[in-house]
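seq:
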Amino acid sequence: MADIEPRPAAGVAGAAAPGTAGTAARGTAGEGTAGEGTVGEGQPRGEPRLPVVLTLLVAIAIPFLMPDQLVPATHWLIPLIILVLMVAMLVLDPGRIDRRSERLHWLRLGILVVLALGSFYATIALTVALVKGSASITNSPSALLRTGGLVWLGLLITFGFLYWELDLGGPGERAHTQRQFPDLAFPQDMNPNIAPPDWHPSFIDYLYLGLTNNLAFSPTDVMPLKHWAKLTMGVQSVASLLVIGLVIARAVNIFK
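struct:
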């Protein structure tokens, strides 16, 4: 009786193939899940640098137009620091603003600290001068309105830059990720039907947020969701209210 040789394990191999394919498919799907929330390659999401540069140039010019009492140290110190940091920022992230870099993040935070130092110093100095009536600007309507406008503009730029840098880790991080669980909820976040699928806010959006909060002393169309955003918008509202309220009150007294 001839020995019956076992059949080749074609069935086993055939069964293994679907299993392998299934495993591979699951692995691919797993990779897709792991990458969820990340923007695919070939999709430019970076912001143009021009609005940021122009805004910082305005911030550089403000101290030169301020009275001596409202500027810490000399008139050129803060503008020089901002200029140096801005040039370094542009060199490290040429073209559109889309580079993920901890060094860039800290560099922009340095710009933010300098902006905040100048704005808060000017706000406090102007408040003290208006309350005490100790500065020459408090007796001149034109000088008072011009100075108050400069301080108010400095607050707008500082807080607009702050929101831009801190929301979801900054512009470099936002350029590479889908917009999920934001710190600041724009109308497009709350109603995706009014925006394209890959929409994300740019510097102009954050500057507009600073403008509306400076004027309304409260959120308007953008809602703060995280604690830092709520506290920051509260501080901005109080600072803007001090500047506008005291300047208008003093101006009315002068005109009388």
